[in-house]
Amino acid sequence: MIKSIILAAGEGTRMKSDIPKGLHKICGKHMIDCVIESAENAGISENILVVGHKKEEMIKATKKENVKHVVQPMGEGVPYGTGFAVMQAKNYIGEDDCIIILYGDTPLITKDTLEKLIYFHKNGEYTATVLTTEFDDPTGYGRIIKDKNDNIMAIVEEKDANKEQKNIKEINSGIYCFSGKQLIFALNNLDNNNTQNEYYITDAIEILNNKGFKIGCYKIDDDTEIFGVNSKVQLAQAELIMRQRINEKIMLSGVTLVDPNNTYIQSTVKIGRDTIVYPGAIIEGNTQIGEKCFIGHNCRIIDSEIGNNIEIQSSTIIESKVNDNTKIGPYAYLRPNSVIGKNVKIGDFVEIKNSIFGDFSKASHLAYIGDAEVGSNVNIGCGVVFVNYDGKNKYKTIVEDNAFVGSNSNLIAPVVVKRNGYVAAGSTITDEVPNGALSIARARQVNKEGWIKKKKK
Ligand code: UD1
Ligand code: CA
């Protein structure tokens, strides 16, 4: 069985944060979930998460069937180090398992690389394989020590390296593949005789090499994959790399991003061909957008379903559905549970909440539509308010097909405007508007002739 051990017990002091490091987000996803997801997608069926600092929060946020948690004891006088962290997971390591070591703060590792690492490890019949890369400036990383036949012998940490070793450019990513049986053997033989008095998992390589086991080095070119996040500066850098990956994939699938450096789309979002997305768009969660849509600047769309050929300008749409050929915005606000029909127009400063709005209907400007069922071919005039709340309870308004609600009217719910009903502008409607009737609910105009002249006297 292929399993991962994900180390995420460290405190992450340089983040200067109350949130445990693995729970900081990049492109909307916890870093730890990015790692777990890559592992899952690479066919790793069980993930053992080593937690310590803020363990309750970490465990709560990562509860999942294929995630097992082990707690690394922490505190004054307790041993520390990556080797000690792996030891905590020893009970989960089977002799025939293939164990991948990963980190909660190295979120950019991809499924592809993990798959290739596992293949390289198995195909080469290695006991351990180290994922490495080359850096012009390797400062801070463990260096890969090789013999004259290019076989890896050991990994030396920066702090323990001599001058000659410090010049080595090939570095340890910290990610490895181990055969279970030999990993257990190595863990039983780790010590903390080094400058930091830590148990280093890196020492497992030298231990196994000394025993004559075959160790592999799988070297990758894309060093962004092993990018570690230790500060909020690096968090933003990781976010940028992830954003570029997401946007590239979306563009290659046929979506036009006018300025991919300024477009924020989460990896869970799906967008159809020939949709154009303008700068400043934020598209999140479980959102699906169809083909040939126009998503204008500064739109924010969360957990929503957008059909085909829809134009959305500078608007916010949350947990709602918009059907084909409809125009939204600029500055419209669709709140949760709104379903907008086909060929609809929702214009500027229109807010819709928990409502159905039928095909070919219009609310072109300045309206509030809440808890309503609006039929098809309805006109909601400028400034119409669906008065759905009496301070305690919410009530429903129904406006049937072909009705016309004149500007600046109030529909006081619960109330129904029947088919073909016509509400005169400025009305406050409290009773049913019958089928085909005109309802006027406002005081009649009174003209007082010569009033100004009299007043001046
Ligand atoms: C480690 C490697 C180094 C490699 C580098 C790559 C060792 C000894 N060194 O160094 O060769 O180049 O990663 O980034 O392994 N952690 C725990 N419990 C612990 C200690 C650490 O869970 O007791 C976790 C931390 O939360 C962190 C990760 O392990 O996510 C790495 O630990 P860190 O101390 O940062 O190792 P490095 O010094 O970076
Ligand atoms: Ca580190």
Key traits:
457 residues; alpha/beta; Spore Coat Polysaccharide Biosynthesis Protein SpsA, Chain A; UDP N-Acetylglucosamine Acyltransferase, domain 1; 16-stranded parallel β-sheet; 9-stranded parallel β-sheet; 9 helices; 19% helix; binds uridine-diphosphate-N-acetylglucosamine
Q: End-to-end span in angstroms?
A: 100 Å
The level 1 CATH classification of the largest domain is: Alpha Beta
**What's the domain count?**
2
CATH topology of the largest domain: Spore Coat Polysaccharide Biosynthesis Protein SpsA, Chain A
List the total number of helices: 9
Largest sheet: 16 strands, parallel
Share in helix = 10-25%
Shape annotation: elongated
The count of β-strands is 39
Radius of gyration: 31 Å
Second-tier CATH architecture of the largest domain: Alpha-Beta Complex
Percent range for β-strand residues: 25-35%
Query: Which structural category do the helix and sheet elements fall into?
Result: alpha/beta
Instruction: Name every ligand kind in the structure.
Output: uridine-diphosphate-N-acetylglucosamine, calcium ion
What are the segments in which pLDDT stays under 50 over at least 5 consecutive residues? none
